Amino acid sequence: CLQTEKILHLKSHRGRKVRVVREHYLRERVPCYSSLCQADCENDGKVLPGDLTHYVVPDVGVVVDFLEILEFRELQGVVFTQTACQAVQHCKGRRQYNRLRNLIKDPRHDCVLFANEFQEYSYCPREKGESQEKWQTRCVYSAAVWYHNHLAGMKDVVMITEDQDAVAEYSSLNAGVYVISDFLQNFWPELQPAHELYSSISQALQEKESESSQKEYTEHLPAEILEAGIKSGRYIKGTLNINKHHDEASIMTEGLSNKNNDPSWAVLVCGNKNRNRAVHGDTVVVELLPKSEWRGKVTALSEGEEKSGEDNESKPMPTGRVVGILQRNWRDYVVTFPPRDGTQSQSRNSQRILAVPWDRRIPKIRISTQQADALQDHRVVVRIDSWESTSLYPNGHSVRVLGRAGEMETEVQTILIENCIHVPPFSDAQLREMPVNSPEKPWRMDPVQVAERRDLRETHLVFSIDPRGCEDVDDTLSVRSIAGGKLLELGVHIADVTHFVAEGSLTDLEARIRSTTYYLADRRYDMLPAVLSADLCSLLGGVDRYAMSVMWELDAQTLAVNKVWYGRTVIRSSYQLHYELAQALLNGEPAEVPELARLEPEEKDAKLAELNQALETLTHVARHLRAQRDRGGALELEGVEVRAQLDEQRNITALVPRQPLEVHETVAECMIYANHWVARKIQETFPHQALLRRHPPPRQEFFNQLVESAKAMGFTIDTRTNKALADSLDRAVDPQDPLVNKMLRMMATTAMSQALYFSTGLESQDQFYHYGLALDRYTHFTSPIRRYADIVVHRLLTAAIAVERGADSGRAIASNKELEELAQHINSKNRAAQRAQKLSTVLFQCLYFKERDPQTDPQCVADAIVYSIRNNGLLVYIPEYGVKGPVYLKNREGQVVAAGEDGSCEWQSGSLRHYSDRISTTSSCGTSTFRLCDHITVRISVRSTSSHADSLNLEIISNKPHRSAEPQQPHSQGRSQLVQEVVRQAEEAQQQAQEKAARRPKLSREEREFSQSKTPNLYSLLEEVRELALMDLDTAARVCVTSASY
Ligand SMILES: [Zn+2]
């Protein structure tokens, strides 16, 4: 090793100058990470392939300014120099630096890091008087030359730069090493999106140079002062959270005491100046204002708001101003380019446009573009570059165009991007990892695997019970009598996904990033490629499959657990039953089992008797398990209510309310049991690093509204324990109106906290409790096809089994910290999935009603039930469409809704009085009172804005129930028609657009690119559970896409 001293004069991204002296060690051997290496470098991890035409070494300027372009996966063979990486860290800050590090780590990208400044022969000391920029360029060039020589001249090396001087100086010095600018033009002329991004970034850079210097905001304080201030208690650190409905900002302070987002821990920040350039989601530091300047929150009912907070008066609360930002949490934003009105500023060829983000919580973003005219009324993905104190708005650049606002495809993509959901088609490299199963090359089990597994094919009657026509069967069951009838053996057999998905493989990485299958109103995006999810990991009838099994030996009399076995198995499911069929068999009704259709009567009867016996035993066991949990206080809340029924073309023909079939509960109970026992196993083996799922008890004050509403209707709801709550909800039934109980359960659901994944090392064991299921430990094991948590749990279980056998678990399992980070990631992806699902539901509802004239179309008038009273209106639920929303009783002109004798409503001048259980309006017509659980008639229309999502507008037209006298079809019929109708319209529109497209340049080139499977959806399912999934979606997912029965 050679030691030398390196002196750096750095300018931080906050503009301060620092002089840094570093001891600098030079080595002869620094890994090159090329598969062509002739020198035995220690190239651990990712290496650049040898079959590329050249390697690319970007200079400092390119890495600093155009990193986003280097992120395109098409750009292969990129070598990042240490010089460039350090420059990014110093000029762009931690966020951009992390982005670069993640890019280098990401195995899906062909790029590596070369520690050029530690390499004896590539390092060049800075010369006296040499500018930092010149020196850096020389370092990068020297690195490029080293590469070429190190690989014995086998690979051309291209240094790319934006600096024409560098091109002139270096381009012809060394054969095989080229220095060029215009690299996109030269090497990737076809990569149109990268070119567009390039010009948009260049534009933004030029604009930045011509910024004015007038201050709009106070400067942020330096990091040291912020840290010291936080320590001393002078400042408060937290995350800026902007209210969706009121443009009101608050700081959610971090800390143990604030797990439930207790609003009393928030600090209010009023107005843009006090917000001081912080954007929703940023980690900021605030200083409290004097008490005399404290303010209260806005609490009136406003559009789309559902959750009821505290009471209505708004007490003054701690109020402050932002003095610094610790971390920017900017993401990609969808904006809309406003219609051109000629008032926007213009400079040179470009125009600076204030684009309006789709998310109302984000400030307008200033974009420089030459395409302002073409882009008006289009949705565009943008990134924020900076927000200087001299600039009223943040500056950004456009990344890509999604399409015209209001078109279905544009809006769906918008929803995905706004929730940070990236679901590109699976890449070829990922698919190459997958097993093949084709008619020419059918997949077969590996004899080695079969020998290692417990083979249940001959010994166990295995079967599945799913919705009709289910394709992805991830769970099967078995039950049999053993030990001469003294014991029962219950088995749950789950698809062995981890056999096919190796940890750390590209498929694993992609599944981890997605974390879940995403269900939208008209499509789904799978977590795993179809060859697994619909084929080799689907436990179909009559085929050999690998499984992960849990098998219990139960005492035949008491059903006490005698022994539990966990392990890998081979199964062949004998029956693929659907719920109705299984229930019919149980009820002794005549039913045709397809698997038995061709047998002789005698054999058929014998097999049928065997199957019946199994189903009966299963029901018996499940009843017992359920009763056990009920004694513990398990809750039956408002869960999955409907499921989709499809015809052969996989169109939704109906959304059918869940039949109250006991067999459904039976299957769910077995899955809950398996999840519970797997949770016990992994937690006992790895007490500090097991992935479990907990459901914290709700905060009592969130129940206030439920308790009061119930009281007003003559019911008592006891919320002291989950058991008391469950029992009192069961009793709160109005025989006249079944919706009343549904409403109460809906309110109870809203009051609940979310169930969450966590690592057991983080919490004490009393925090593991699952409140909704009344179990001391719980996890997810039964759906590895569509939930990444289950994949993690399968691996933990495999490791636990290995430990039990005395073997080393084979590899180190994830640490508590890694697991906790993963749990947080999965939790956040699950929330994103729920939000996207909800937004897509609203999107389809709006698209449906947008086509209709609310004044004349009978579809726009519906019955609604009041489920909450607010101080200026009602929150109602429309069963026919599954819509929830506000109905105002007072308008901006101060008029109130007055009901005539026939119930019809109109606006009149008058006054309004609000009580806990009712609200009254008084006008010259008299007094009208609206109570909880009243049925009213509403008119549905669409409130359209070009920049944001459309929303539904509900207007009361009568205080009497809607006269749809004829008995209602299954409630959700309307919703299925709704999705179908909208999809049909969109397809027609698209067809027309395609015909037109021949005549004009395409803008929405990327349309449909993301769409993988357009399988109709389950939106209805998860829609109902979205608030929280107390049944943990085990049941929800089972209710998968089904074929038409009638
Ligand atoms: Zn090497």
From TrEMBL:
InterPro entries: Dis3_CSD2 (IPR041505), NA-bd_OB-fold (IPR012340), RNase_II/R (IPR001900), RNase_II/R_CS (IPR022966), RNR_Ribonuclease (IPR050180), Rrp44_CSD1 (IPR033771). Residues 299-319, 989-1011 are annotated as: Disordered. Keywords: Cytoplasm, Exonuclease, Exosome, Hydrolase, Magnesium, Nuclease, RNA-binding. Coiled coil: none annotated. It catalyses: Exonucleolytic cleavage in the 3'- to 5'-direction to yield nucleoside 5'-phosphates. It comes from the Eukaryota. Its EC number is 3.1.13.1. The keyword Magnesium applies. One of its GO terms (cellular component) is cytoplasmic exosome (RNase complex). Residues 304-314 have a biased composition (Basic and acidic residues). Its main location: cytoplasm. SMART domains: RNB. Belongs to the RNR ribonuclease family. This is DIS3-like exonuclease 1. It comes from Sparus aurata.
